[in-house]
């Protein structure tokens, strides 16, 4: 059964979508895992980037169709043998209206995605969920469907506050809806490697979340990562290789943490 991970922070523009896409990519291509990327953001940036990177020029499916039809199976877009996605389109912004009009009980509203994912979990090793940076039906559903959260921390004060709020909201979801979700780690994303603000923010994050919870690997600013937004993800030269290695290292550290949780008896480890 797939281990499901939501990538989150309640501050926009911190790199959640890029990390969701790249973690999915490296697990599929470099670690030979079967991965499903679920785009829960109506802007569909994750869908656009990963489709462009795999040569998909037209996306007709939408996660909102799955919500309305009560099944996600017809929404799955196979990109490669190991990498699939469930794309989002702008119409998905109407999710709150749909839930309030069609789902009576509050607990059923926040667990709707979980119910839809359960029938397809056995088809994958990992499921990543990309969500908007808001306290909303999107984030509630993602949290209730996920086993773990990877919190993205861009090295600035508002991002740190967003991460702190995210952890507090996880506790709220646990207290009110019995959410069973564990923080697998806090991933620093640096604006300027070696910058004083970056270093100070990571030090504060270590104090807040604990040294054992802040990943040792960090995502440093690289022009190649920005270029991929235009060209799609490539692997043609040393600059591509360097950018890929950053996320391979992040994924490997995350896998070690997941294995540690499995050894504590929570989830089956995918070897």
TrEMBL record:
Cited Pfam families: AAA_31
Residue ranges occupied by any AAA domain in the UniProt entry: 4-182
Q: What is this protein called?
A: ParA family protein
Fetch the Gene3D superfamilies from UniProt.
P-loop containing nucleotide triphosphate hydrolases
């Amino acid at each position: 059964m797939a281990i499901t991970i939501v990538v989150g922070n309640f501050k926009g523009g911190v790199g959640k979508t890029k990390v969701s896409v790249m973690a999915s990519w490296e697990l599929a291509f470099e670690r030979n895992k079967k991965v499903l990327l679920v785009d829960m953001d109506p802007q569909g940036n994750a869908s656009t980037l990963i489709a462009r990177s795999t040569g998909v020029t037209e996306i007709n499916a939408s996660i909102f169709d799955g919500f309305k039809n009560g099944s996600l199976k017809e929404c799955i877009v196979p990109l490669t043998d190991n990498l699939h996605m469930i794309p989002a389109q702008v119409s998905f912004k109407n999710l709150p209206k749909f839930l309030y009009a069609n789902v009576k009980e509050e607990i059923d509203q926040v667990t709707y995605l979980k119910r839809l994912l359960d029938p397809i979990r056995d088809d994958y090793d990992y499921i990543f969920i990309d969500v908007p940076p808001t306290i909303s039906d999107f984030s509630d559903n993602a949290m209730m469907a996920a086993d773990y959260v990877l919190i993205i921390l861009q090295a600035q004060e508002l991002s740190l506050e967003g991460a702190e709020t995210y952890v507090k909201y996880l506790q709220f979801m646990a207290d009110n809806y019995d959410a069973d979700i564990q923080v697998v780690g806090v991933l620093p994303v640096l604006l300027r490697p070696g910058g004083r603000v970056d270093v100070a923010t990571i030090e504060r994050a270590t104090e807040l979340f604990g040294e054992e919870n802040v990943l040792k690997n960090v995502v440093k600013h690289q022009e190649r990562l920005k270029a991929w937004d235009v060209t799609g993800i490539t692997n043609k030269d040393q600059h591509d290789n360097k950018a890929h290695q950053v996320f391979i290292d992040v994924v490997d550290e995350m896998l070690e943490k997941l294995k540690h949780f499995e050894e504590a008896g929570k989830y089956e480890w995918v070897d």
